């Protein structure tokens, strides 16, 4: 039995035992400024009006909720695809960056910083900075800059300055450290845009609220199509967990809706090369919050691996740690190989080439019983950015 517990954040910034704000003392003023203001600002009618306007006319919302006929036949279920892949910039991430840049403006910030791993969040941030005419600095690991060259160039075209993180493994966590350091040194005029439901409170809740537009739309789109506002099941992939948090949000306290999260197993959960945090992780502090993360016995963060750049993260947001811990959501681990097959499967059945992150969510259909169920899958992004990965995998 799922309890009637509230799965949203509590007033102290916790989801069950996960969450909080574990930051160095020098970052506290920035974090407190956000904690004290984010709910009041984002609930102002003037804020909501501009947010809704940009989501509609700039991002292209509402995104369609499409009944996938051929896929439904294959699985003998009613499968709806929530088409976040049709958002401007090709994924859900822009919902959050628009919300955060509007918040930064109200807080009178002049500059934006962000960190990026694969470059997707960097591109979504550079996009809204161009839109608002704000200065944008993106920190990126030097190794990632080589691996993700097209996104580096996209960010430059959009006018962002890219700063290479040259410390440690020269990847995402090093870029995060440098962005934090920058923020400590520029507390008054700079806002740090975090790209998923991770980081110190209030970021996980802030990002979940901006992404919750996804399930807000699903509710009224389902009423129009099936006469009730909820499905039997919602499936989404989890890197940090922002698209999943958005797709689950309005169903968190509706136990009749099963929540399914797909994590990246990489080469397999028995292999060292994986990113399946709920299977391999343990409690600890990552990126300023208490959550589940992959770490060694002495607490060193393990370098994650997934074929999908967006799921290649050593933790999950605290909301997902709690959904896992409480049993509210079911987590499955999808290998690289399974995800790639599922991506080709969706392409052939529905004419939609998904992002490889999304392909992990599609693969969940083969791991759980969906027969006769009404299922919504969040199609978090499109596959254009992943064409090279599809090509080098080659089995199509
Ligand atoms: C970044 C990304 C993800 C993973 O991020 P979440 O915060 O877990 O949603 C998933 N899908 C796509 C297309 C992405 O770009």
Question: What features would you describe in this structure?
Answer:
- The protein has helices spanning 28-42, 45-59, 69-75, 93-106, 120-132, 142-147, 149-157, 172-185, 203-211, 213-226, 242-248, 277-280, 318-325, 336-350, 356-363, 387-393, and strands at 14-15, 18-19, 65-67, 78-83, 111-116, 135-141, 161-165, 190-192, 233-237, 258-266, 282-286, 289-293, 329-335, 374-379.
- By secondary structure, it is an alpha/beta fold.
- It has 2 domains: 24-54 and 93-207, 3-Layer(aba) Sandwich (Rossmann fold); 62-91 and 212-393, Rossmann fold (3-Layer(aba) Sandwich), CATH 3.40.50.
- A 6-stranded mixed beta sheet has the order 3-4-14-9-10-13, sandwiched between helices. A 4-stranded parallel beta sheet has the order 7-6-5-8, sandwiched between helices. The protein has a two-stranded antiparallel ribbon with strand order 1-2.
- β11 (282-286) and β12 form a beta hairpin.
- α5 (120-132) runs parallel beside α7, α9 (203-211) packs across α11 and α10 packs across α11.
- The longest helix has 15 residues, at 28-42.
- The chain is globular and about 55 Å long.
- The structure holds pyridoxal-5'-phosphate.
């Amino acid at each position: 039995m799922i309890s009637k517990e509230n799965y949203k954040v509590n007033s102290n910034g916790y989801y069950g035992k996960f969450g909080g704000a574990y930051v160095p003392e020098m970052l506290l003023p920035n974090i407190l400024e956000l904690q004290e203001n984010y709910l009041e600002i984002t609930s102002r009618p003037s804020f909501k009006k501009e947010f809704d306007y940009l989501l509609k006319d700039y991002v292209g919302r509402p995104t369609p909720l499409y009944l996938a006929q051929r896929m439904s036949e294959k699985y003998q279920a009613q499968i709806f695809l929530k088409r976040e892949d049709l958002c401007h910039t090709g994924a859900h991430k822009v919902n959050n960056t628009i919300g955060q840049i509007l918040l930064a403006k109200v807080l009178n910030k002049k500059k934006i910083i962000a960190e990026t791993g694969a470059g997707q969040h960097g591109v979504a941030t550079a996009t809204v900075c161009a839109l608002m005419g704000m200065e944008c600095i993106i920190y990126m690991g030097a190794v990632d800059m080589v691996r993700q060259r097209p996104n580096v160039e996209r960010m430059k075209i959009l006018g962002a300055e890219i700063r290479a993180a040259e410390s440690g493994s020269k990847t995402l966590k090093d870029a995060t450290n440098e962005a934090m350091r920058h923020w400590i040194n520029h507390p008054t005029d700079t806002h740090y845009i975090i790209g998923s439901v991770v980081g110190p409170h209030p970021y996980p809740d802030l990002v979940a609220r901006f992404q919750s537009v996804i399930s807000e739309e699903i509710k009224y789109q389902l009423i129009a199509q099936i006469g009730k506002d909820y499905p039997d099941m919602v499936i989404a992939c989890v890197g940090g967990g922002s698209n999943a948090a958005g797709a689950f949000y309005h169903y968190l306290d509706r136990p009749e809706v099963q929540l399914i999260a797909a994590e990246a197993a990489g080469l397999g959960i028995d292999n060292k090369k994986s990113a399946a945090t709920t299977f391999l992780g343990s409690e600890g502090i990552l990126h300023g919050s208490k959550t589940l993360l992959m770490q060694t016995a002495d607490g060193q963060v393990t370098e994650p691996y997934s074929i999908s750049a967006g799921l290649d993260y050593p933790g999950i947001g605290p909301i997902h740690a709690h959904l896992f811990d409480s049993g509210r959501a079911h987590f499955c681990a999808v290998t690289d190989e399974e995800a790639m097959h599922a991506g080709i499967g969706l392409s052939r059945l529905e004419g939609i080439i998904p992002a490889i992150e999304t392909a992990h969510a599609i693969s969940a259909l083969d791991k759980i019983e969906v027969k006769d169920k009404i299922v919504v899958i969040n199609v978090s992004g499109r596959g254009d950015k992943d064409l090279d990965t599809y090509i080098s995998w080659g089995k199509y």
